[in-house]
Inverse folding.
């Protein structure tokens, strides 16, 4: 564990976590998330474009991008907070390391728009990329926390409709809103960031009329048809650890190739701290290698360069 990771864990445990225990106002939580996000370091020369529409899209690139590939990134925030703006620095760093454009939809948030609103908007964002000329097998799905679960839920739907993406990577995905993972109890005292006692109230806030195990909310219960390669990164002290472990097994049983990476003592979505934290940079370099493998192993078309 690096010295900076040790400091981050202390700060999260004594400053951030107590605030989350008492967080019951989504509007205030959104504002707080946005303020914290301004602390994340942006790489230089970021091009950020907004594409208005029924589901607005934020496009992020840092250097000349491979034009026929794109990363569809779904932000985290427990389906009630967050936006592409809170994740702009993370997306820009992914764009810089991979050479690909990253696009993130402004999906609707609960409780104003409970499930399945986020799932519908994620699907609409993917459809928009198809209309813009991107091939399904040149789209890489991605997300963190609730956004990681949303990306996996979208993956199941796309595979069912024979629109298989090239692959998917997820940071600490929330895949089981039925809250059956044993790590919710086993790691309750070890998780420096997410308080286990807030999980059920959050589920009640966001699920709307859906059952908690509906595949649109909980991809752990989805059926996958020939899933593409998947990379999952999660901290070994997180209460959502078993969400990643069990999700990896579901994908493997469906015939998928899954790389599950459990990082020692890393907090929930530590990748957002790239620029401060060496473990964050190492994790994003692993993502860049995963994506390079997808691009290099893809079947080249006659008009590809």
């Amino acid at each position: 564990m690096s010295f900076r990771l040790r400091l981050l864990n202390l700060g999260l445990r004594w400053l951030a976590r107590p605030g989350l225990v008492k967080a019951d106002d989504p509007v205030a939580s959104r504002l707080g998330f946005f303020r914290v996000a301004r602390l994340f370091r942006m790489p230089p020369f970021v091009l950020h474009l907004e594409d208005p529409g029924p589901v607005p899209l934020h496009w992020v690139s840092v250097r000349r991008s491979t034009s026929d590939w794109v990363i569809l990134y779904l932000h985290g925030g427990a389906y009630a907070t967050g936006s592409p703006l809170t994740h702009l620095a993370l997306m820009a760093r992914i764009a810089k390391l991979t050479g690909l454009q990253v696009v993130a939809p402004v999906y609707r948030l609960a409780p104003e728009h409970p499930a399945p609103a986020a799932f519908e908007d994620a699907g609409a964002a993917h459809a928009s990329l198809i209309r813009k000329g991107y091939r399904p097998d040149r789209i890489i799905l991605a997300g963190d926390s609730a956004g990681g679960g949303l990306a996996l839920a979208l993956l199941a739907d796309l595979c069912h409709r024979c629109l298989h993406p090239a692959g998917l990577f997820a940071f600490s995905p929330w895949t089981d809103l039925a809250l059956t993972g044993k790590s919710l109890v086993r790691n309750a005292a070890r998780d420096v960031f997410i308080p286990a006692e807030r999980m059920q109230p959050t589920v009640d806030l966001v699920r709307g009329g859906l059952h908690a195990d509906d595949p649109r909310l909980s991809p752990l219960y989805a059926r996958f048809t020939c899933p593409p390669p998947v990379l999952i990164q999660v901290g070994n002290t997180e209460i959502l650890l078993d969400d990643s472990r069990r999700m990896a097994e579901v994908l493997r049983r469906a015939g998928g190739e899954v790389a599950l990476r459990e990082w020692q003592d890393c907090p929930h979505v530590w990748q957002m701290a790239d620029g401060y934290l060496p473990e964050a940079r190492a994790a994003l370099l692993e993502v860049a290698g995963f994506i390079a493998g997808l691009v290099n192993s893809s079947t080249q078309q006659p008009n590809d360069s």
Observations:
- Residues 301-305 have pLDDT under 50 and may be disordered.
